Amino acid sequence: MIPTQRAHRIVAALAVPAFLLIAACGSEESGGDSGGPVATVSGKPGEQPEIEIKEDASVSEETVVEVLREGDGAEIAEGDYLRMDVVAQTVEGESQLVNTWQTAQGEPIEATEDGAKPQVIAQANVESALPQTVTEPLVGQQVGSRIKIEGRAVELLGPAAQQAGLTDDDGVVWVFDIVASASVDAAGGVEGEQAATEDGLPSVEMTDEGPQVTIPEGEDPPAELREQLLVEGDGPEVTNGQALVVQYTGVTWADGEVFDSSWQRDAASAFQIGTGSVVPGWDQGLVGKQVGDRVLLVLPPDMAYGDTENGGIPAGSTLVFVVDIIGAA
The PPIase FKBP-type domain covers which part of the protein (predicted)? Predict the structure, then answer.
């Protein structure tokens, strides 16, 4: 469970719980049937694409993939972590399922002064925040490209189609702007000599199953965010809006019990930093760090989930995280 502020925007838009990975059916790429594409897309690069559905359009039984603009960035490989702007809408009724340019109320999302705004983080051709079938055609494309994907809901959304109120044969159009990518070993971690933790902070011992965190006996939890760099990396600096790929373990200060660990799942987690997509303590504590860093974070309640119970974590909890930053895009 990545410490998000809210359910993942894509999964929430498709009415699927945040912890459920969408199991999509396979599909075959095609240039379309005799009817051709059902949608045309216009708009300047970097701006919201405008999707126009053709009158009496009938979606092909095979997935249709079209490169609308070819980028000049790195070629995307299977498993790469992608940061993207996305619009998805139905063919029938033209209802929007996802739109990273607009709020749920249809208002434009304004970028911060440094250009950061909420975007989609997903893996190419891997079940992640998006169905595998939707991201499969992105393998082999280049960063900077705008890609249109058309197909039936059952092929592109799998079980989420019915949960979103669609029939299997309803058509769906996706437009992806691929902003950045990172090729990261999802089972990897940070290497380097680890510093001893500071007085009053939990101790951290690395094991084969990840960090073992010990809360200092008799110490009250800090009232403000505490952070310490345990291992110093030499990678790029983390900036607002990036997709981060991390290994992490989280425990509660109250009992020192692990409530989540990507190490124990043998798979890294990915999220966007600096846009309010995660709890404030992560946004504040990880921006400015470097890829290759191992960071100890102690989050008071107002930097974590506050007075709200979350996934079995009691309301008002101080949380302790050990985070390995293993990639960024």
Answer: 241-329
